[in-house]
Amino acid sequence: MARYAESTGKEANFNLSRGVAVSRLGDPRVNADVPYDEFIRQQIAAINLPAKDGVEHADHLTATGFLAIGPKSLQEKNNEQFEMDQVDEQIDTTSRAVLGLTVAWRALPRPQFDPVPQKEYYAMAGIFRSTLTFMAPADRNQNRNASTLLPLPPPDEQLASTTKSAEGGRGGAKSPGNPQEQKKKKQQAAPAAVTTATGGEVMGVQDGHMTNCHVLVRGEVAQPGDIVPRGMLTVLSTGDAPKITSERSGAADLAEWLTSPTNR
Question: Residue of 90, 118, 205, 255 with fewest CB within 10 Å of its CB?
């Protein structure tokens, strides 16, 4: 459940400026005997997890590099196509690694007897489309889909919550509202503070704004069809598939579903 890469792959193989950061997900977590369900939560939805101190907070942010480090077509001219290709890769990686199931190719119409309906692929796609991905390559020449890296909190920053949103990633949407209003909301937030203990930048993901995906006719971004609410896979659920209850991306709901004792 850890990934490593030094470049983006695809048509133009850009070097990654922070590819080594994801190596932190390997031996340290295994040696620390992190429970498997917690290990999954940290890589899928770590931004929503509480942190006991700044070191743990930074480690949570770094953990999401699992979703950010995959191959990307940075020369893609169509922004919508780039975003959906990125989502497809994140679905493919998560479903293979955690579920032992190939879900990504369900973007295209499938036979009626397929256990994973096409609409459920787009239900999962909405979760990943509602996140911002930070994965700036070291070489930005000819990069049509540039992003920044995910900033780690500086040592002296006091956070009221570890669910702080950042801007500059690829995918989802940027946080609206003026800075003064956001500052006021922070000051009114719960008093439980986290003192961060590290700075720098890493590849990773954070919640964006909730986005429900269209079913794409024949998988073509230029042919959007019906909108599908974000959700999980029915075939792997006991009873009805759980609904997304949060007003955020749904990554936390997905992580809880993936690690649920009833999800065998």
Answer: 118
